[in-house]
Amino acid sequence: MSIQSNLNTIKSTLPEHVTLVAVSKTKPVSDLMEAYEAGQRIFGENKIQEMTDKYEEMPKDIQWHMIGHVQSNKVKFMAPFVSLIHGVDSLNLLQQINKHALKNNRIIDCLLQIYIAEEESKFGLDENELNELLSSPEFKEMKNIRILGLMGMATFTEDQNQIKKEFTHLKSIFDSIKKLKAENCDLKTISMGMSGDYKLAIECGSTMVRIGSSIFGGR
Ligand SMILES: *Cc1c(COP(=O)(O)O)cnc(C)c1O
Fold this sequence. Notes:
This protein is an alpha/beta fold. Helices cover about 40% and strands about 20% of the residues. It has helices at about 5-15, 30-35, 50-55, 75-80, 90-105, 125-135, 135-140, 160-175, 200-205, 215; strands at about 20-25, 40-45, 65, 85-90, 110-115, 145-150, 185-190, 210. An eight-stranded parallel β-sheet has the order 7-6-5-4-3-2-1-8. Pyridoxal-5'-phosphate (PLP) binds near residues 46, 67, 196 and 214.
């Protein structure tokens, strides 16, 4: 199957309120261009260097999403162009993003990553840490970031009930904060679901799915 037909098949199954992030990490620009020519404009990468290289080579109407873990000292490289940062998991990182957004005279959209899996390896905040962050005075002062919602990754397992439980948990955390009124919040996005579990994620309330291998093939 070609990238274009994979993309069209997936897009035809997505409800209108769900945004597709085409996860293109490790794939060559020629593959991304195939998706671009099929109309895809949102691409997700997990390494800042790779995303920056692709940004420089590719058309400028692409929205670049950083979906990987972000090291504070690399924020400056993507601050001029990144469209959405999914994996924000600390106040310190958010402050770095705010600082570099200000230097670039922009507001950078972010999602806060929540830890929902039963794996030690996944990053993210727990519910208490999330509430602490959102109610901190430091957060309220940040004017060059905007929090659009939450992101989470389920445990890597075949157990559909487990995955469903974790997605439902993320949705309930989102519902508990979504009425928050703050200048730097516009809570409307739940980024959850990948190639193997995006249908379940959408059933559980996802509004943004991050799909790689089902579009571009295995890595
Ligand atoms: C790689 C990756 C994806 C996409 O995974 P696929 O299984 O290839 O669809 C989604 N989200 C994150 C955070 C990733 O790192």
